[in-house]
Amino acid sequence: EAQVTQNPRYLITVTGKKLTVTCSQNMNHEYMSWYRQDPGLGLRQIYYSMNVEVTDKGDVPEGYKVSRKEKRNFPLILESPSPNQTSLYFCASSFDAVSTDTQYFGPGTRLTVL
Amino acid sequence: DAKTTQPTSMDCAEGRAANLPCNHSTISGNEYVYWYRQIHSQGPQYIIHGLKNNETNEMASLIITEDRKSSTLILPHATLRDTAVYYCIVRVWRGSSNTGKLIFGQGTTLQVKP
User: Is A108 helix (H, G, I), strand (E, B) or coil?
Assistant: First the structure.
C-alpha cells in the first residue's frame, strides 16, 4: 500500500531533550516536506526537500533540522525542543518537485514539550 | 496563489449529497482548483482538482462555474466518515511556489449527521 508513515505518533518530552520524528514514504517520491499545524494558524511548512541531499527552509524552520540521505526518508530533528514546538506535525511527499499540487500526507505526530 | 473563501461550517444528512462551495473570484487563467480534506487530526487527503471543466472521480465531483470565480465540491452520498474539514486551494498547476508548499485556509467543517 502506498503510504507515508511517521513515528512516533505521539510523544511527550521535556524542554531541551533532543528528539527525532521519522518520516518514510514507499512511493519513490522525490519531493518531501514537513508541516506543523496549530489552532488558528493552519498548516505551516517547516522544511522541504526537492530530492536526496537537497533540503531548504520553509516558513517556520527555526528550532528544527532535517536530513535527506535517502529518497524514502526525511527525518525531522529537534535538537533542543521548547514548549512553543508543541504541535501536530505532518510529513508529506509528492512525485517530484513540480507536481507538488498533489501531496500525500502522513498520519501526523502529536508532540508535547513540557 | 489566489485567495479562496469558504463557509466556516455546514451540515449534511447521511446519504444526501453534500455541496461545498468555494469562492475564488481572483483566480487567474493558469490556476487550478484543488480540494483536500482533513478528518479529525489526520493528515490532509487529496480529493480532486480541475481547471475549468467539471471533474469526477471515485470520491467526489467538482463543478467549476463558467467564469471560474467559484466552484462546488459534491460528495454524492455523504456518510458519517465524510465528516471532516474541507479545504479549497487555488494554485498554478505544477507549482508556482518554489517551496512546493500547499496553503491551507480555514476550510469548511462538514458535519454529516445520521
Answer: coil
